[in-house]
Design brief:
This protein is α+β, with helices and mostly antiparallel strands. It folds into 3 domains: about 80 residues; about 60 residues; about 120 residues, Histidine kinase-like ATPase, C-terminal domain (Heat Shock Protein 90), CATH 3.30.565.10. It has 8 helices and 7 strands, in the order H-H-H-H-H-E-H-E-E-H-E-E-H-E-E. The strands form 2 sheets. The protein has a 5-stranded mixed beta sheet, covered by helices on one side. About 0% of the residues have low confidence.
């Protein structure tokens, strides 16, 4: 029972007592005799009012003392024996202290968030400068190798040409990695904003499947594709989504064993989404995901999509176009 209800029950007998006293005042003169029923009602009302008031007062007192003891961090029984302490003041001071602590914690959280955001921007700027410098150095090293391979100055044997070709391939790979890192940084810093538009599933997958098929032919993997015509159109940024799907499909083909099959199936998903299921008999991924996979995951997340990997394959879920009722 709430405190207000307890106090209201303590007031009701007092109201009856007031009416009884008014009646006694009227019949209490020398030439009048108070009815016996009125006297009984007055006595019962006064007794009930006393009992309820006493019970409610004890309950409120015990609760206040208990709360004051908990606020002070003391034993409730020991606090109840101390009658000189103003319990309400103790509770009020504790609440004020808690309010100050909450405000301080909120301000400290805001300050930490601001420091973390500033540090994030600083690190992003440092990495951006580093990638620009690495890209420039790679270009400086790649151009002489390209010129030397195209028109060698002097006779080169097969081993020298092979070493130069390996160096050129390594520089090209490093240049691609730097470009991917810069794309990831631009996406995190909000410099690359997704521009989604409706697009057919087969049109979206066509460039990614071409890249994956080229890799599958070199790794002796058979690629099967099933894109039903009944699948609704996807609402994605074509550039970002195709880049992400290319990385995911190439990774699936690369992880698949030679002579195995990789199946790509498009089907309806839940909650106005379309699922691109990539089934491949590949082992579990060892170690952290590569830069390509991180970039693909960020691109898919920017499309309001998800990537779920398991031992049986990868499921990419992307938003579908909602069909408005006529």
């Amino acid at each position: 029972m709430k405190i207000g209800q307890r106090l209201l029950l303590g007031v009701l007998p007092a109201l009856l007592g007031v009416f009884a006293v008014i009646g006694l005042a009227y019949w209490g003169r020398y030439d009048r005799e108070a009815p016996r029923l009125l006297v009984v009602i007055a006595v019962v009302a006064a007794t009930l009012s006393l009992l309820l008031a006493w019970r409610n007062a004890r309950y409120v007192r015990d609760r206040i003392e208990e709360l004051a003891a908990q606020a002070a961090g003391a034993d409730p029984r020991a606090a109840a024996r101390d009658r000189d302490v103003d319990e309400i003041e103790t509770i009020a001071s504790t609440v004020a202290g808690l309010t100050e602590a909450v405000e301080w914690a909120r301000d400290e959280g805001d300050r930490r968030a601001q420091r973390a955001e500033a540090r994030e921007h600083e690190y992003a700027g440092i990495v951006e400068q580093l990638t620009q410098a690495l890209g420039a150095r790679i270009q400086d090293a790649s151009l002489p190798l390209h010129v030397l391979l195209a028109s060698p100055f002097g006779a080169l044997n097969e081993n020298q040409e092979e070493m130069l070709g390996t160096a050129q391939a390594a520089l090209d790979t490093a240049d691609q990695e730097v470009r991917r890192l810069r794309s990831l940084l631009a996406l995190d810093r909000g410099e690359r904003i997704a521009a989604p538009r409706p697009m057919r599933a087969d049109d979206l997958l066509k460039p990614a499947l071409a890249v994956a098929q080229a890799r599958a032919s070199t790794t002796h993997v058979t690629l099967h594709v099933d894109v039903p015509d009944t699948v609704p159109r996807l609402v994605v940024d074509p550039q970002q989504a195709q880049a992400a799907l290319s990385e995911i499909l190439v990774d699936a083909v690369t992880r698949a064993a030679a002579g195995s099959d990789v199946r790509v199936t498009v089907r309806d998903g839940a909650r106005d989404h379309v699922q691109i299921v990539i089934a491949h008999p590949a082992a579990e991924r060892e170690g952290p995901p590569s830069l390509e996979q991180r970039l693909a995951a960020r691109f898919i997340a920017a499309q309001a999509g998800t990537i779920v990997e398991s031992s049986r394959g990868t499921v990419v879920e992307l938003p579908a176009e909602r069909v408005m009722p006529a």
